[in-house]
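Repro case for the chain-ordering regression, as requested:
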Amino acid sequence: MEKNSYLDMELLRFSTAGSVDDGKSTLIGRLLYDSKSIFADQYEAIEESSKRKGDATVNLALLTDGLRAEREQGITIDVAYRYFATPKRKFIIADTPGHIQYTRNMVTGSSTSNLSIILVDARQGIIEQTCRHTFISSLLGIPHVVFCINKMDLVDYSEEVFLTIKKELEAFSSKLEVRDIHFVPISALNGDNVVNKSEKMNWYGGSTLMYLLENIHIGSDYNHVDCRFPVQYVIRPQSDDFHDYRGYAGRVAGGVFKQGDEVVVLPSGFTSTIKSIDTFNGSLSEAFAPMSVTLTLNDDIDISRGDMIVRPHNQPNVSQDLDVMLCWLSDKKIFLGGKYAIKHTSNDVRCIIKDIKYKININTLHRMEDDKELKMNDIARITIRTTKPLLFDKYSRNRITGSLIIIDEATNETVGAGMII
Amino acid sequence: MKSYNLTHLEELEAEAIYVLREVAAQFEKPALLFSGGKDSIIVAHMARKAFWPAKIPFPLVHIDTGHNFSETIVFRDDFVRKIGANLIIGSVQQSIDEGKSVEEKGFNASRNVLQTITLLDTIEKHKFDCAIGGARRDEEKARAKERFFSHRDEFGQWDPKNQRPELWNIFNGRKNIGEHFRVFPISNWTEMDVWQYILKEKIEIPPIYLAHQRNVFIRDGVIMSTSDFIQQRETEPSQIMQVRFRTIGDATCTGAVESDADTIEKIIEEVAAARTTERGTRSDDKRSEAAMEDRKKQGYF
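-- result from build under test --
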């Protein structure tokens, strides 16, 4: 690594979804292996385990299957996080299992991703699972989607096969809201177009997967337009040096805040101006998502956790009645008319489930308006009413101020993931 | 046009600070587990940043096995004094004296496992409802599945198959009385990120991370420091080597690596070229394939 080059590196979070057979683990293993991110002792450990299980080749899936039950059953249960870096970027992979019962894992792993890799078996083309993954990537508002048409080696590296699948995927994706789509023909097993350009597919003039991962523009993935600052914690040193200091700590959820900006504090509606944007390393002239900073204001206003600092002419929605696309995560069914706790930005409220409008068949995208029974892994549009107004944006506009989780008050479990419509 | 982009270290720091503030807001009595190792040092460093100009609003807790490298303890006391934090020590020796723990015997005896008992005892005694730690997901495969906010039942146990899903940056710290949370602000950091951050922020670390001459012996291919706490076999003669430590745990289970890296820059070069994981020098992880998972279920860090 070049000296100091790490000071220019960016962070890209991506998720991979796929089933046991479509080569997802092989692909991750390939990315880690070809970027020299697998250590010798890790490799030895999985080589040893593979041998013990009688596998002919080293099973790179064992790298990510960390729990005993996963290794015993040969399945991935939970989202596993993997890390690697190239001189340009550091990558966080949320590796999610692809079985149908694990939609919740896919939703979880996708929630923070910049990019989603969807594997398609070149021999099979689009299958139900492909639709499911694409739909979830779109639902979770992942800005970039890369379809990897895998196992090209098994279809003689045929351009025709690739183009047919690509066309089908384009047709399907046009029904969804995906901003940026890419298609790469690969063989994860042999490494074609993963890190190194394939010599067997000269007809393909596009980028390798690694090139995309390293170069795709992620600067606009956060909202830098609508100023949103959910107050997380109030800092009052009460020391001699900072006697009257009152700082509002939080992470910018959208827009660019500048010193001197006129702001309004919600829900109170009081206005003031930004006196300073403070950090331990000194004051800043501006702050943007996802920076963690502390704001001080020129007026003494009563502000606490759960409040939101915004600009007067660009305010979020304020309402107690919300429509939400919900992914149900619990094995206990949702209770229509039931009361649940909600966490939204730095706010804690309670809600009542007023209506389940329709469920979505995630394989066909059909709306099911008669089926109101919401079970684990189901996705539905619901209406809720909250105990006090939430300050929110549409999820499609802002993934931070547009998302919420639903908690069962009896067990404290997180039972639902909601995207505000 | 100006680009609004953070570097990877800035983004990781912003995430960790967000998590630390979330702890202060969601819990009544949190504590920061501080071993004097590099990971807990950077967590404490970022806790300072998170609440500045106020002091860190929770105490630092050291679970002291009594088998420390002396350099770590000197560093710990110095660090705590400098940042004006409150330090609470949970003593494994005391747990043994009180009959709560039984010392392992033999050549491979270590107090690493006993830490769990003392840790849970300390959490209970001070009624901490959250313990912040410096564990990272890249360290070990069982940790790859760990949450930022990780729930522990009233016995301090972790149930890996039944974890709460964690979405976006919304952390659910709700719990019943007697239960607590472990929170890992640097979950997404790698060993390389930690060293780059130490260099960028000019953070002081215990000197034994840097290459130095040391009296050591070799056991099962691992370079161990000679110490009053370890019994050497006759076949394990002492020798002087130029070494450094990649992790600092209990002196009985932390191996050194041969190294000339006597500056942070050189360590970064070394880490970039390394072919084994940093915990490859930890004999506590080598007890079985699921050693870490089993210890974590019982309440280990």
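Ordering looks correct now. Chain A touches chain B through 84 residues (CB under 8 Å).
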